Amino acid sequence: MSEQALASLRKIGSRVVLVAGVLFAATFAVWLVFRCPLPFVASLWHVDVHGTTFNSRYRIADGLKLSGRLVGMTRPEVLALLGPPPPTDKWEDHGLVYVLEPAALDFEWLLVDFDSAGKVSSVEVVSD
Fold first, then answer.
1. Same domain, 26 and 55
2. Which of 7, 42, 63, 87 is 20 to 30 Å from the Cα of 69, by its Cα?
3. How much is the mean pLDDT over the chain?
4. How far apart are CA 121 and CA 43, in angstroms?
5. Which of 122, 125, 126 is nearest to 73 (CA)?
């Protein structure tokens, strides 16, 4: 291969790497701003009942699930932290059900279940 052909290939390779890096950085930034789990922040949880651009209530629920913070808490402790759930006829077989955000056509939900001792045994984030 000639020097000119090698230089051309290097230039193309550099552009591909640059474009791939920019796409990765943009994807990571979108995930970080809109989908990355958040720690529990009461003011965001209580204000963001109907979903916002930043999906903070969904992200907090995701953080609660991943951290396991609710597991082992009693019903009164969960209610003190998250407040009372809104009335709903969805997911009636679960202990506490919180609406997180409207998705495209569905809703996202936080489902909290209790064991026979009255302690949180599982936490799920689901869509209907």
1. no
2. 87
3. 84
4. 26
5. 122
